[in-house]
Amino acid sequence: MELVSILNLSYLVASILFIVGIKQLAHPKTATRGNLLGALGMLIAVVATLFDQAILTYDWILVGVLVGSLIGIIMAIKIQMTAMPQLVAVLNGFGGIASVFVAGAALQLSIPKYAFAVNYQEIVSIVFSAVVGGITFSGSFIAFGKLQGFITEKAVRYPGDQLVKILVGLAAVGLGVYGCLEPTDESIYWILSGVSLLLGVFLVIPIGGADMPVVISLLNSYSGIAASATGFVLNNNVLIISGSLVGASGIILTQIMCKAMNRSLTNVLFGGFGAVATEMKDDGDFYSGKVKSTSAEEVAMLLDVARSVVIVPGYGMAVAQAQHTVRDLYQLLTARNIDVTFAIHPVAGRMPGHMNVLLAEADIPYDRLKEMDEINSTFENVDVVIVNGANDVTNPLAKTDPKSPIAGMPILDVGNAKTVVVIKRSLSPGFAGVPNPLFIADNCLMLFGDGKKATQEMITALKES
């Protein structure tokens, strides 16, 4: 069997493993196996590629494998779950810039051939890799900066910002067309890459922290599309297939996130095009004299007579690393024959599925996790809702104030329950930067403190009751 046939067969096996792995990632019980299958597929693809006859020396390849593996191991050990969205953003960015450099190297090798005949499939793919890869790299690191706090989480808007984006976008299109018509001018490629990097900054910087889950899933899709385009440049089937899988799944996830946040895909793609630029300001009197504080002992008394409890996890729970303590509370309540479920908003946290991953890590049964559409109609029959570190996803302003930045966003209707207990460090606003009327509702009690410590105090009080 020829080497090319062996390579393509290996790539086919790797692609099948990718597809099966993604399928198994859909459920926590099979997610670990799915992750291993995907990793095995990538190992097969990498090993098969190393047997390609076009490789002249393995020295730098081995250095890259060793350095990359070391960095990957360190990140896997050191990165906390709360920082996972930032890690995803960084990895998306690296995928994008890798596509830019690989396509640029392919262009250098092909320029002598283009003097005689131009391969337009190749040159169009090269140009496309530069544009999408550049946008992905800079956009991902802007998202990383917003998530990490290096850059303000607020939407950065200025007069004429949309016009600037349009002009930079047109410049990228113009340079791309010129690069296809004059493929022997290598400088055009790098200028195009630079303009694309600039466009990525302009596209993401106007997007606020509340929309970051959508941005991350979209940039993940971009990284896949860039990789697929690079696959066409290199005539590499596994890169085309795997990039297409990432690109398609990312777009589907982005659409789901947009629906969950009442955002249009156009709004996300163009960085707030047509979005409400105004932002509500708390005048200092919004909560004054209206908040009812409580204690762990009082909450324990409520839980002791409750028959149904819903726990709403949020980013505050993730920051406090309270998921295991929340599991202990869940086990204690269920041991008392109290029906306990978890209400999951699609964009709670800072990336899609953030809360699902945290709760699965704590071994909370997956059938106890209820999506927003499933649980919203049942809140009026719930005795106690415990909101642990969530804010915007429970904010009634989404339904009552059309001028609010979260106007129209579907929320968890926790206010319909008999009693709501909100665990929060302070009355500070969420990512959207607006106050939450839920905190001053008649049936709402505020338990101020760290999510993990407050939950542990409730457990102690329950055991003593």
TrEMBL record:
Enzyme Commission code: 7.1.1.1
GO MF, any single term: proton-translocating NAD(P)+ transhydrogenase activity
TM annotation in the entry: 6-22, 34-51, 57-77, 89-111, 123-143, 163-181, 187-207, 239-258
Keywords for the protein's UniProt record, in alphabetical order: Cell inner membrane, Cell membrane, Membrane, NAD, NADP, Translocase, Transmembrane, Transmembrane helix
Ranges for domain NADP transhydrogenase beta-like: 8-460
Function: The transhydrogenation between NADH and NADP is coupled to respiration and ATP hydrolysis and functions as a proton pump across the membrane.
Highest taxon, organism lineage: Bacteria
Keyword Protein biosynthesis: no
Membrane-topology descriptor: Multi-pass membrane protein
Protein family according to the UniProt entry: Belongs to the PNT beta subunit family.
Subcellular localization, as worded in the UniProt entry: Cell inner membrane
Protein name: NAD(P) transhydrogenase subunit beta
Gene source species: Leptospira kanakyensis
InterPro entries: DHS-like_NAD/FAD-binding_dom, NADH_DH_b, PNTB-like
Alphabetized Pfam families for the sequence: PNTB (PF02233)
Catalysed transformations (reactions): NAD(+) + NADPH + H(+)(in) = NADH + NADP(+) + H(+)(out)
GO CC annotations, alphabetized: plasma membrane
